[in-house]
Design goal:
four-stranded mixed sheet, 3 domains, single chain, binds zinc ion, alpha+beta, 361 residues
């Protein structure tokens, strides 16, 4: 994520800020130019850019409950911003906890969309693609009469991404993480993983790119249901770290692809943050671990360039986390086989960046 500045007073501002702490201007994120903009009130629901008062804008329909800080152009018919317009079922807002949960979910969702927009790859919604456009259902758990909770299931099915809303609660998410023996579980990770399934449908399946995919990830025609059942019964095969980014990636080639897609986004986005802050790694006496992000990670030459910058940086971030008594922020190892998979994803994404007219996702 880029580091932003208030375009009225040059104060540093962040992606989720609502107001400038120095000049007090209201701030909104303008998806058209991917920048935080300072605003002044205009008539009705409209605001205008401080830097360009001719330009009228309004906030996303979800700004009312302070769920979203993105802006919508005056000619746009949609009530919601380019991210929120994909929402179909939203969390329950009858309680403050529900509103807080949705705020955290929405924040992670807009972070995902930021990356997709950085590649100029906005996913189609259901107006543009009624069958396979991307929609989100944020599902509440079902509480039975006796108080028994049936958890909602996070997953993807033909463009519908379901996210279990309760995972916006730290306690619920941490319980799920520990019980499934996962080293990492976040809302943002869920969004990046699930959209990976959507990208597979659009960029591999619908374009008949099976040969290249199978050469790297294996044959996805094995029965998915049985494969998942096997995984939950028997766990990952011994030595999986040689070939997979996570234990879950071993379950089925679809899951491997989605896991690698999530990691590609983790790496690219975190490198952009490091670049925004000018963070470089140069451990004394260990020049081989030096790293500086002197390129735009969203336009990297290849995955190798990303990985060379990422490994020393992630080692340093993990060490800093340990100094704070926190778990590693990136508890993963990038084996050569995984780098090959990231290289495949890199080509897939950059081909679509170069040929936007062919890109459906
Ligand atoms: Zn300011
Ligand atoms: Zn919005
Ligand atoms: Zn999955």
């Amino acid at each position: 994520m880029r580091l932003f500045a208030c375009d009225n007073c040059d104060q540093v501002v962040h992606f989720d800020n609502r107001q400038c702490v120095r000049c007090n201007h209201r701030l909104g994120f303008l998806p058209d130019d991917l920048l935080m903009r300072s605003l002044e009130p205009r008539d009705g629901d409209f605001w205008q850019l401080t830097a360009n008062p001719q330009r009228a804008l309004r906030f996303c329909g979800n700004a009312g409950l302070d769920i979203c800080n993105w802006l919508v152009g005056p000619d746009d018919d949609h009530e919601f911003c380019i991210a929120c317009r994909h929402n179909r079922l939203v969390p329950n807002i009858d309680t403050q906890e529900g509103i807080d949960r949705w705020r955290r979910i929405s924040q992670a969702q807009r972070h995902l969309f930021y990356s997709l927009l950085r590649w100029h790859l906005p996913p189609p919604d259901r107006f543009q693609d009624p069958q396979g456009g991307l929609v989100f259902d944020f599902l509440e758990d079902e509480v039975q009469f006796d108080g028994h909770v049936i958890p909602a299931i996070t997953g993807h099915d033909e463009g519908v991404i379901a996210i279990r809303a309760a995972e916006a609660d730290d306690l619920t998410r941490e319980l799920a993480r520990a019980s499934m023996n996962e080293p990492y579980r976040t809302l943002l990770g869920h969004f990046r993983h699930e959209v990976g399934h959507f990208v597979w449908n659009k960029a591999v399946r619908d374009r008949n790119e099976f040969e290249g995919f199978r050469a790297v990830f294996g044959d996805e025609r094995q029965d998915y249901g049985i494969a998942l059942q096997n995984h939950y019964q028997n766990g990952a095969p011994l030595g999986w770290q040689q070939n997979f980014i996570s234990a879950y990636a071993t379950a089925h080639p679809w899951e491997d692809f989605a896991e690698c897609f999530a990691h590609y986004l983790h790496i690219v986005d975190t490198l952009e943050t490091a670049r925004g802050f000018g963070i470089a790694i140069d451990p004394r006496g260990h020049g081989e671990m030096a790293s500086e992000v002197d390129f735009d990670p969203y336009r990297a030459a290849d995955a190798e360039q990303l990985v060379s910058a990422w490994v020393p940086l992630s080692v340093a971030i993990n060490a800093i986390q340990r100094s704070m008594g926190q778990p590693d922020s990136y508890p993963f190892v990038l084996s050569n086989a995984v780098v090959t998979k990231l290289e495949y994803l890199h080509r897939l994404i950059q081909d679509r960046v170069a040929n936007p007219q062919q890109a459906a996702a």
